[in-house]
Here is the input.
Amino acid sequence: MSTTRSTSATRAAPSGRASAALREPTAAVYESALALIGLLHRHGLTDARIAQATGIETGRMYEPDARLPLSQIERLWELAAEATRNPGVALQLHLHYPENKLHFVAHVGMRSRTLREALEHWRKYAPLLCEADDVDFIVEGSHARFLYTCRDPRYDSRWFAEHFLALAAWFGRSFTGQPLRPHAVRFMHPDPGCAQAYHQAFDGAPVTFLAHDNSLAFDARYLDLPVRTADSYLQHFLTQKADELKRRLEREAPVGNRVMFAISALIQRREEVTFERVSELLEQSPRKLRAVLEGEGRRFRELVDEVRRHAAARYLQWGLSVSQVAELLGFSEPSALQHAFRRWFQTSPGSFRAQLRAGHWSASEGAGPWPCRPSPDELVGEADRAR
Here is the structure.
């Protein structure tokens, strides 16, 4: 991966956000959200209480193509953690999946020849699970690393990172029949205080928090292990359908969102953020992409600024240092981030962090708690009393 940094975005003049809010990305309901709903039912929460806490009408969730906005899924994770009294629920949710009830992208992986091929398919089709998901793997000598990132910093959440890394370890074991023992696990969020859940999910591998990425390190030889359920005939038809759905999703997504996802991916990969590189990722000519983007009322540099603004707020909320945040977002030095922060929020990063802790800000500015909505604690309390 390139280690080049982009500093031009720090000089971008626009001080506000883009002209209008970008569309919220969606994620497939099957199977994670359905498993969470089932878990909540078993802990005494009714559909009405779930809808009150999350805005999700559960009766609409059983269509194969059903999708939900990410903010609702994030609230569903929060409610599940409160209802089960288990802050490690995202690390263990796959244990509650009904047998063979997996999203069909997982079935594409199950029909692959090797674990490497399964991960390549997951990387390609991750947007079918969630438009903002980005999964990847890299080989570093004798070690390999599986990485998860959320390409929309407005909805970056520990629930998604924990769930996907735990799924990767579980898939590795399930697909190959061999124990995938990680060497090390890294998360960008702070330690939520559930050491036993991490120990079980990752076979006792050391876990580092407030890291520069969400990743799972393992022996690179695992990549060449054969998948027990490989089936090239069935995979041919599954990938045809996956390609069709991916093209449809890309056609329906606003170009502003797709550009933002590409910007975020480049920043997280420590690559230079240029319009030409974004055009390359989106497989469009720069001239055509610029025309479509401007037709939506967007400017490229404003989108770069917006990605950085949301990511900086989220990372500071998690507890990363100003130096860490500056490096992650490609600023030339911490002082450049501090200058941008004053332009974004009219305050310093340190003051902003203090206001976050006091509850005066939402890191995603608008993706925070709903007004007049009962808290998960209140709803869980009602369920306990009902039992």
In short: The first helix runs from residue 32 to 42. Confidence is low (pLDDT under 50) at residues 1-19, 364-380, 382-387.
